[in-house]
Write a structure and sequence with these properties.
Elements (H helix, E strand, L loop, with lengths): L1 H16 L4 H12 L4 H6 L9 H38 L18 H15 L3 E2 L5 E3 H4 L24 E3 L4 H11 L5 E10 L10 E11 L4 H16 L5 E8 L2 E10 L16 E10 L1 H6 L8 E8 H9 L12 H4 L3
Parallel strand pairs: 1-4
Antiparallel strand pairs: 2-3, 4-5, 5-9, 6-7, 7-8, 8-9
Helix pairs in contact: 1-4, 2-4, 5-10
């Protein structure tokens, strides 16, 4: 029986050298050392041996088992290493191949203009204020001196959700909300950038567009302060040689009111097709805050005064970059956007 154990050991070691897969290795282990394996079968025959032969035979079988177990561990490690190397080779990346180029994005011209406007006004000491795009009729109209049935409401064709709730037609409600919130603090010096909504849609109008409005409230604020702020803004936005002019106008929330023109960027004021031969281009509306609006904000118009202005970001962007159709700003055409 000792010779049989040695035979099984030698044959198994020889067979192990030819195994090339982990599955085959496991099958061979079960065949020899499993419950029905050849070496296990010999152990069951120990009962036929004498008491003196049993420990000697048991020692021989255990030594053979130890040799085979060690051989299996070594062969398993070798096969695992071979499998890992094959996996590495299969997943190898050829870094010498050229990469796949990607299209780089660009900042949208409207975003660029809004950020530039914010930087200009922040540099002049303004804070940025925000408010809801879904607004009440009170803040969008009544608090701005536009009571119900006021004829000036027809100037803004609005998107109403209910009789008292609408999409805001201007960012002016943020001015009233801010005055209510900070009263009686002075000065109030804010700009209000954001989206607004009106029923317009053509080459120069959009049902959704962007505005930046400004408000300054303090003691002794004058029209000349308004002009100085807007002149500084125009020169930083359109060039140091720009001039502005104020033309009398009407807005319910300011008195007196003025339209603001900037000297043409293309002809410098000489007259061209862009400025329609006048040398001037309208860019925004402005004026001194109406006393009723100050009262609605919580301030006493006998003690403080203020000015306000508002401009469309799309119009500023079109003038700055020479864009003739506002709809290009919302088409998301890469050929257009890549120019910026």
């Amino acid at each position: 029986m000792k010779e049989e154990v040695r035979r099984i050991q030698e044959e198994t070691l020889a067979e192990l050298k030819g195994v090339t897969s982990l599955d085959t290795l496991q099958e061979l282990k079960v065949k020899v050392l499993g419950k029905k394996g050849s070496l296990t079968a010999l152990l069951r025959q120990m009962g036929s041996l004498s008491a003196e032969e049993r420990p000697i035979f048991g020692q021989v079988v255990n030594e053979a088992r130890d040799v085979l177990e060690k051989a299996w561990v070594e062969q398993t490690q070798e096969l695992e290493q071979i499998a890992l190397q094959r996996q590495i080779e299969a997943e190898r990346l050829d870094i010498s191949l050229p990469g796949v180029s990607t299209i780089r994005g660009h900042q949208h011209p409207l975003t660029r203009v809004i950020e530039e406007m914010e930087d200009i006004f922040l540099g002049m000491g303004f804070d940025i204020a925000e408010g809801p795009e879904i607004e009440t009729d009170y803040y969008n109209f009544e608090a701005l001196n536009l009571p119900k049935e006021h004829p000036a409401r027809e100037m803004q064709d609005s998107f109403y959700i209910t009789e008292e709730i609408l999409l805001r037609t201007q960012t002016s409600p943020v001015q009233v909300r801010t005055m209510e919130r900070v009263h009686p603090q002075l000065p109030v010096k804010i700009i209000c950038p954001g989206k607004v909504y009106r029923k317009d849609d053509d080459a120069t109008h959009s049902p959704m567009f962007h505005q930046v409005e400004g408000l300054v409230v303090d003691k002794g604020i004058r029209m000349s302060d308004l002009k100085g702020i807007l002149l500084n803004f125009s020169r930083q936005m359109f060039g140091e040689s720009r001039e502005i002019r104020l033309r009398p106008s009407f807005f319910p929330f300011t008195e007196p009111s003025a339209e603001v023109d900037v000297s043409c960027m293309l002809c410098g004021g000489a007259g061209c097709r862009i400025c329609k031969g006048t040398g001037w281009i309208e860019i925004l509306g402005s004026g001194m805050v109406h006393p009723k609006v100050l009262e609605n904000g919580g301030y006493n118009p006998k003690e403080v005064t203020g000015f306000a202005f508002g401009m469309g970001v799309e119009r500023i962007a079109m003038l700055k970059y020479g864009i003739e159709d506002m709809r290009l700003l919302f088409d998301n055409d890469l050929r257009f956007l890549q120019q910026f």
